[in-house]
């Protein structure tokens, strides 16, 4: 079973998805971390995102391994390394949308996400989980918030990337753009705390027969 949580940057996806997974006893998958990890490695190899042919060749050389740690959170190992703080580097923030728009990158990570979650109950967050990765999931949610609120949240996280720029890149890419699934529950998190959003989602899931632990 997959609970899909999508939304733009700083809408609260990661915090809500992780806490919801804990309350349900599900595993938690941060798909964005996978895109960031691939971005980090491509930057280290100095592969220009404007050259998708070279990106695809680099992907073919990468050794990717993903799974779940003991606490149920997903991880990705890339060329024998598990990046952590590196995923929040300014360079990664600025480049991740450009690399993520490349079809070969999206196909690789989409396949990885589907294969690693087979037979598991997971809460997965991202930008195309309910529309492209698991479009058949009956449990879809889309979190959003006002641009100003999201800018404040991003700044509080120590990130200085442009919300508007990320939104434009993510929503206009050719493959699996950021969009609201037609059957998703849309939640405005502008004036809700994490517990409030989790409680709202948990209530909807409970109505579908999925109680929290």
Protein architecture, described:
The structure is a single chain. Helix 1 packs across helix 9 and helix 2 packs across helix 4. By secondary structure, the chain is of the alpha/beta class. The chain has one domain: Rossmann fold (3-Layer(aba) Sandwich), CATH 3.40.50. It contains nine helices and seven strands.
Strand order of the largest sheet: 2-5-1-6-7
User: How far is the N terminus from the C terminus?
Assistant: 16 Å
Helicity range of the residues?
A: 40-55%
Question: How many separate domains make up the residues?
Answer: 1
Overall average residue pLDDT: 95
Identify the overall geometry: globular
Structural class: alpha/beta
What is the alpha-carbon Rg in Å?
16 Å
CATH superfamily: P-loop containing nucleotide triphosphate hydrolases
Find the count of extended strands (DSSP E, 2+ residues): 7
CATH architecture label name: 3-Layer(aba) Sandwich
Sheet with most strands? 5 strands, parallel
Tally the helices: what do you get? 9
Spans where pLDDT lies below 50 across 5 or more residues: none
CATH topology: Rossmann fold
Element pattern in H and E? EHEHHEEHHEHEHHEH
**What would CATH call the class?**
Alpha Beta
